[in-house]
Amino acid sequence: MPVPILLVTGFLGAGKTTLVNRILQQADGRRIAAVVNDFGAINIDAELIAGAEDGVVSLANGCICCSLEGDLLRTLANLLRRTPRPEAIVIETSGVADPNDVIRNLMDPVIWREAPLETVLCVVDASAPEAQLDDPLFLSQLRAADLLAVSKGDLIDRSSLDERCRSLSQINRRATLVEAPGGEVPLDLVFPEVETPRERTTRPKRPSIDRFESFNWTSGEPISLAAFQQAFGRLAPRLVRAKGFLATIEKPGCRYLFQFAGGKATLAPLDREGSAQEGTRIVFIAEIDRITAAEIDEAMSRAGIAS
After folding, report:
1. Burial of 184 (0-12, 13-18, 19+ CB in 10 A)
2. Is the predicted pLDDT of residue 56 greater than 80, yes or no?
3. Which of 47, 139, 215, 273 is least crowded, fewest Cβ atoms below 10 Å from its Cβ?
4. Which of 108, 35, 42 has the alpha carbon at shortest distance from 72?
5. Which residue has the higher pLDDT, 269 or 9?
């Protein structure tokens, strides 16, 4: 029996991990394996995925559309050799991945025979700046999708949300568009009952162009939350994304999930044991040449935080 693949794509900070978690929570005993690709040496997203019946496989420090494409195919082959086999596989790409390159790899005849790509789902942040609609990477993610899941609609008013949905539908007219509050998407759309998944046409592979780079910052000791907020305020204007786990002096024993996307930062207590390692670990993502590791270390040390 072929194992269907769901490919989840979307720009940095769109809400892909939240949506994947919701899918796994609704699995109802179905064996679903999750393959998570994070753009950085610290795979934050893999630690946030909970409830995969067949386990979570982490692909870190690269992008599966280029440097990790061989790792992806080997990972899928290993998953398909498991006993019992997964009944479905979810692949969450990094926010810097072009899904067309991933789709091309998934159409490898050996993989396609045993694990056909059934659905490409693009998570779209409704509250993202309108300029994102002109971003070539975002447009590539959008146009590759069969299903558009619009997240964070609660952050804007209803008329703005309707207008954004109309714009998305005009860009990709063949895709089904659904609102996905809290990452909620109907499973019958995610894994539709199809006898033969359609083969896909992709554009010729383009030369790889490095656009983003990631920096990892860690501290083995709890840090001052006030000092961290001060340091991050200096860094934020030059970042497109940041995320990580914080252990703070103010709340010993409590771990926080830190997220920064679309110019907005959030800090929330982890409602479960989400991190296998103690201390603070953060991934910073920026356009190339916008910031350096030394500048990140300097900002953190200026605020009295030692790595």
Report:
1. middle
2. no
3. 273
4. 35
5. 9
What does DSSP say about strands 147-151 and 117-125: parallel, antiparallel, or unpaired? parallel
pLDDT at 151 over 90: yes
Judge whether 100 and 127 are in contact, CB under 8 Å. Answer: no
How long a stretch of residues is the chain? 307
Contact 167, 175 (CB under 8 A): no
Please answer whether residues 215 and 244 qualify as being in contact, where contact means their C-beta atoms are separated by less than 8 angstroms. no
Domains of the chain and any CATH numbers: 5-190 (3.40.50.300), 212-302 (3.30.1220.10)
Peptide bond preceding 129 in cis form (omega within 30 of 0): no
Count CA atoms within 13 Å of residue 58 on its CB side: 15
Considering the chain, what percentage of its residues have pLDDT values greater than 70? 81
Sheet containing strand 264-269, strands side by side: 212-219, 280-287, 241-247, 255-261, 264-269
Label residue 283 left, alpha or beta by phi (over 0 means left) and psi (-120 to 50 means alpha).
beta
Residue 306 and residue 4: Cα distance in Å, rounded? 46
Q: What is the pLDDT of residues 186-237, one digit of tens each?
A: 888 888 876 666 667 666 655 556 789 999 998 888 888 889 999 999 999 9
Rounded Cα gap, residues 201 and 66, in angstroms: 18
**3-state helix vs strand vs coil in the chain, percent to 5:** 35, 25, 40
- Residue 44's Cβ-count burial label (10 Å; 0-12, 13-18, 19+) is buried
Distance CA 23, CA 43 (A): 20
Tokens describing residue 159:
């008329």
Strand partners, 247: 255
